[in-house]
Design goal:
Length: 181
């Protein structure tokens, strides 16, 4: 079905295309892509670590696999590279402060002290109150530009219907209500 734009929108000046966009223009446009917010955790021989990530994506359901993009300059990068296992904890509405804590320069102990954690198969921290947690082993790592793409085989998961979701859009957090009925 075709829906006509309201007259004021149709009359508004059209945005100009940006040729050969630089990093800033790319980020500005990427801020228009709403995304779930996740805290990615790991534990193992190299110790415990966690960071906030919106660059998380389903790859294939057979075998269950997702990907996480991790900046190689992040302080947590060597820990994830050594442990080769992680848990993707998808945040609920109300987790905004926790997301900022894991997205900043906060010491690792203070990040984990702000929430309750359990574990599934790999021993990576599983966040209490997450809408979903995917416990994974890293099967492949591909470097592109500044980031490592971690391909992660899901070995166990938890899912909850109890909480509203959380989306990061336009550089802000937005709660997302569940459809009732
Ligand atoms: N993929 C990422 O590494 C990523 C994603 C989101 C936010 N961040 C970091 O969080 C902070 C706040 O981000 P913001 O969204 O409020 O504003 P921003 O202007 O830094 O980013 C806008 C959007 O651009 C993308 N982006 C940002 N940094 C990126 C990077 N280094 N590589 C690839 N894509 C990137 C993301 O989609 C982000 O939502 C920044 O320090 C940013 O670097 C990083
Ligand atoms: C909402 C939001 C979303 C993201 C991030 C931040 C925030 C606030 N950050 C940045 C990342 O969390 C930060 O660099 C880490 O916490 C590592 O920081 P330290 O180097 O440990 O201080 C981030 N980093 C990354 O490598 N991949 C990603 O997808 C994201 N996404």
């Amino acid at each position: 079905m075709h829906t006509a734009l309201p007259p004021e929108a149709a009359a508004a000046p059209q945005p100009l295309p940006v040729a050969a966009p630089d990093a800033q223009a790319f980020r500005h446009a990427m801020s228009c892509l709403g995304a779930a917010v996740n805290i990615i955790t790991t534990d193992g021989p190299a110790g415990r670590a966690g960071f906030t990530a919106s660059a998380v994506c389903s790859v294939t359901d057979t075998p269950p696999t997702l990907l996480v993009c991790l900046n190689r300059t992040a302080s947590v990068h060597p820990v994830f590279a050594a442990n080769q296992q992680l848990c993707v904890n998808t945040l609920a509405a109300g987790h905004e402060d926790l997301s900022n804590l894991f997205g900043g320069k906060t010491p690792m102990a203070a990040r984990f002290a702000a929430a309750d954690w359990s574990q599934l198969e790999t021993g990576s921290p599983v966040l209490a109150g997450a809408v979903a947690s995917f416990d994974c082993r890293i099967t492949q790592t591909v470097s592109v530009g500044t980031h490592d793409i971690l391909f992660c085989r899901v070995v166990a998961l938890l899912r909850s219907d109890k909480h509203a979701g959380l989306v990061y859009f336009d550089r802000r957090y937005h709660p997302v209500a569940r459809h009732l009925g």
